[in-house]
Amino acid sequence: MERADFLIIGGGVAGLSAGARLAAYGRVIVLEGEAAIGHHSSGRSATFSHYGIGNATVRALTAQSRDFFLTGGDGALARLSPALFVATEEMRPTLDALGETMAALSDATEIVDEAQVRALFPPLRTGGAHVVAGIVHRDGLRLDSDALLQHYVRTIRVAGGTVLNERRVTAIDPAWTAATDRGERFGAPTLINAAGAWADQIAILAGVPPLGLKPLRRTIIVVDPPAGMDARGWPFVKTAVDDFYILPEGGRLAASPVDEVETEPSDAQPEEYDIALAAWKVEQYTTLDVTRIAHRWAGLRTFTPDRTPAVGFAAEAPGFFWLAGQGGFGLQTAPAVAEAVEALTTGAAWPKALAERGVAREHLDPARFA
Questions:
Q1: Facing residues of 6 across strands?
Q2: Rounded alpha-carbon distances, angstroms, from residue 248 to 133, 137, 159, 234
Q3: Rounded to 5 degrees, what angle do the CA atoms 314, 199, 345 make?
Q4: Phi, psi at residue 223, to the nearest 5°?
């Protein structure tokens, strides 16, 4: 049996960011069931950090993570890119509330009118029943998810830790020894459950009550911009309510109907209805005529019952640590969540920076679902 100080199940951004943070305190082993890290959710994200998603705790974690993306890696992990939140007349109250929240988090936020909206993203339909107002956050961040994941892997390995792919955990004993489908055994006094959509299943293997996590499938399609137009400098655009978003993607445009289809943990694949819905939303919100879909994919976003991550030890199982429920904001909150993991697993003081942003340990404590 191979021993470590921290055994992490799940090689997505949650598990890897925690492992990189804990590598300074002892040996870390990360077990990932797929052939590649970040296969199910981290690698299928919209890769944009913004304040238009999640509750107050999620937004605080997003704000706390910004400096790491800009200065904390061993290379360029993010670049500044504007985010534009838009509203029809019906969505105005939601947009106004979002504007107040964003203004408290960033001074790079401003209200824009229809003409400014069109200047920022020319294909958007404006006026009448279409977009009538917007808020632009000039300091949004386009994240490089692959660079981020690889940075975390390098940090773990340089410190003497191990990241292993194609290791599906099949059994866990109460001493926190995990057996894999290859017949290997790995043990540690602290087991961190960062298995994403499978986190409840891992808990059941370990004899720990599940949290009631809910995996939701989301679909994204990629379409061509208008002929002769360069979309690379356009902003990430999202409706104030969760109905539609679109953003530049490799010279094309990636769009989603912001769907949430409850599903079992799986290798999510886009379904025809959701692809058609995404194309219809593109044509409803923009002047684009979707005659060809260049690419399509789906990913899982897994939430706790209150849509705030569960970060902390299971009260009834000493040494079993929950790191689950990052929803669709796992990438943009990973550095801050890793700070919380570090404090909780090592017994260090709660990070002052998190406390100053209004994030207390009880906000993340999985005991709230007991």
A1: 28, 190
A2: 21, 16, 37, 6
A3: 40
A4: -130, 165
Note the pLDDT tens digit of each residue in 263-319.
999 999 999 999 999 999 999 999 999 999 999 999 999 999 999 999 999 999 999
Interval 169-221: pLDDT, tens = 999 998 999 999 999 999 999 999 999 999 999 999 999 999 999 999 999 99
Start-end of H helices in the chain: 13-22, 56-67, 92-105, 114-120, 145-158, 199-205, 272-285, 330-346, 352-356, 361-364
Cα–Cα dist 189/182, whole Å: 22
Yes or no: say if 364 and 310 are a contact pair by the CB < 8 Å rule: yes
Q: How many Å is the Cα radius of gyration of the chain?
A: 21
Q: How far apart are CA 47 and CA 34, in angstroms?
A: 21
What letter represents residue 272's amino acid? E
Question: What residue has token string 């929240």?
Answer: 101
What span, in angstroms and rounded, lies between the C-alpha atoms of 366 and 343?
15
Domains of the chain and CATH, by start: 2-43+145-209+306-369 (3.50.50.60), 82-139+214-303 (3.30.9.10)
pTM, full prediction: 0.96
Query: Is residue 73 very low, low, confident or very high in pLDDT (cuts 50, 70, 90)?
Result: confident
What is the C-alpha to C-alpha distance for residues 41 and 327, in angstroms, rounded to an integer?
9
Whole-angstrom CA distances from 180 to 37, 167, 169, 223, 339 are: 17, 6, 4, 41, 29
